[in-house]
Amino acid sequence: MDTTRLRLPGHDVLEHTLTVPLDHATHGGERIEVFAREIVRDGGADRPHLLYLQGGPGGRADRPARITGWVDRALDDFRVVLLDQRGTGRSTPADALTVPARGDAAAQADYLAHFRADAIVADAEALRAELTDGRPWSALGQSYGGFVLTTYLSRAPHGLLEVLVTGGLPGLTAGAEDVYRLTYARTAARNAEYFARYPADERALRDVARHLGGTEERLPTGEVLSARRLRQIGIRLGADLGFHALHHVLEAPFVSVGGTRRLARTFLADTGALLSHATNPLYAVLHEPIYAQGSATRWAAHRLREEWDGFAEDADPADTSRPYHLTGEHVYPWQLREDPALAPLADAADLLAAKADFPALYDPEVLATNEVPVAAAVYVDDMFVPLELSRATAAAVRGVRPWVTNEYHHDGIRSDGERILDRLLTLARR
Length: 430
Known about the structure:
Blueprint: E1 2-8, E2 11-21, E3 31-41, E4 49-53, H1 69-74, E5 79-84, H2 105-112, H3 117-131, E6 137-142, H4 144-155, E7 160-166, H5 176-197, H6 199-214, H7 227-230, H8 242-250, E8 254-257, E9 260-263, H9 265-275, H10 281-286, H11 300-304, H12 335-338, H13 346-354, H14 364-368, E10 374-379, H15 387-396, E11 400-405, H16 412-428
Parallel strand pairs: 4-5, 4-6, 6-7, 7-10, 10-11
Antiparallel strand pairs: 1-2, 2-3, 3-5, 8-9
GO molecular function, one term: aminopeptidase activity
Domain AB hydrolase-1: 48-198
Keywords: Hydrolase
């Protein structure tokens, strides 16, 4: 393992690069790099390690420019390890440039099949062996990071001293259809709450959608903004401050140019920033495969959206007698062809959606006899990780101590991370 030492005020920063197998089940095969940034507070060199796994899939680890929030609290007790999960950040990248270079869509899909939670756990175990001299470490997982830690508890519990989860207890046997049926219902409720607070925003959304039906408008990336793409800004509905963020996007979408109404450049730039997956293409490509356990997902979110009034792809924004909903954490096959950052991966994503032999990620029998202390923040109003599934998992995994709260939405760790982490540590060690 190669390590570089840097400094932040009051802290050492150790940047680690480790070579691991692409397929941990195959010895002597292709190898890739994984990167982790370790932060050590001055005077804290003897503290134990805390591994942090961020949400996603496909998101790189946090890059703190200064130490605040949950990281600041964690450094009171730990050396904090921020892992760039394989394919992200400074780990060997898996994106629209590198993956197509591997060959045809089948070769690309075969490669990307090695980027799920089971492989991330094996990477973490390889890193732990280098950093802790074999001692188990504590781990904190936000959202998808909690999914990965549930796999960790299933496959390598000996590597874990304690587990802390925020908004990320997955359904142990739930497939993609089970998840999306619940998240569509919650997204519909969040739409109703949002438009009740900002009724002018619903009128603006419908107005923009009608405009896009007859006028070509392009995002700063050059892609045409379609009405169906526009509705995907609804992913922000699941955030603590998401209503306000969306209101600031929709408050003044139009300008007049020579008497012709066009979408404002600022509106297009703000919308494009919410829609683009240039920085996290694996999120879209792997979003459904993270739920695949022995059966194909077959683009479940796309197939199921017609079951709810307001989510139909061809819903008429001019028909005010029917709801016209923003969508949430749902990925659609056409999306990968409309987003330039995803288009080179679209055919491979189709093959992953058809792949029926992904192995199970969680072992209910192992989890039923779990001996690792687990504390989990479960958010009542979570739009992305359904409360019903999280509660069932908390009951099925031995030793889980849930904190069920309506104080936060899915990204609570961003808005009040210090308090949340402190509460989880107290709960885990009670």
